[in-house]
């Protein structure tokens, strides 16, 4: 599976998405430092929100195959400037989170991600699991077996 680094402001849903992609129970957890898992790098929102820390995000892109820029549908603004993806030599995808929130504006968030340069945009509700399989399929490499493809084989009896 391709390795992805998740970037976005605080409370946009990076850690919740990480838990959903890993098939874990969703529970709130504030990310205080960069968590480098097998195929997911979960970064604190403060890194994207603070100029002095933002440079560290660039370093983590070198450890990933794909950069995921996250915006929640309820965000009133975007941190990502137009054409920011041109500065990265990795695939960059956009991920709109909290798509079912009653105050959300999914199209506005997707538009901001398109202006940032994202050609592929995924729409997710991590708590409901909506859109998670689409991201996993995008990250899939030849030979990867997805959780929904696994079949249990009965134990051999003697």
Question: What is the topological layout?
Answer:
Elements: E1 4-7, H1 14-21, E2 35-36, E3 40-42, H2 45-49, H3 51-61, E4 66-72, E5 91-97, H4 106-116, E6 120-123, H5 132-139
Parallel strand pairs: 1-3, 1-4, 4-5, 5-6
Antiparallel strand pairs: 2-3
Describe this structure as you would to a colleague:
- 27% of the residues lie in helices and 17% in strands.
- It is of the alpha/beta class.
- A 6-stranded mixed beta sheet has the order 2-3-1-4-5-6, sandwiched between helices.
- Helix 4 links the parallel strand 5 (91-97) and strand 6.
- The longest helix has 11 residues, at 51-61.
- The chain is globular.
- The termini are far apart.
- The model has no long low-confidence stretch (mean pLDDT 86).
Structure keywords:
5 helices; alpha/beta; single chain; 158 residues; 6-stranded mixed sheet
User: In terms of quaternary structure, what is this?
Assistant: single chain
What order do the strands of the largest sheet run in, or round the barrel if closed?
2-3-1-4-5-6
Number of helices: 5
Regions with little confidence, pLDDT below 50 for 5+ residues: none
Mean pLDDT: 86
Q: Count the beta strands.
A: 6
Rg calculated over all Cα atoms: 16 Å
Strand content: 15-25%
How much helix, percentage-wise, in residues?
25-40%
Shape: globular
Judged by helices, strands and strand pairing, the structural class is alpha/beta
Report the sheet with the most strands, covering strand number, pairing sense and barrel closure.
Answer: 6 strands, mixed
Order of helices and strands: EHEEHHEEHEH
Please give the alpha-carbon distance between the first and last residues. Answer: 37 Å
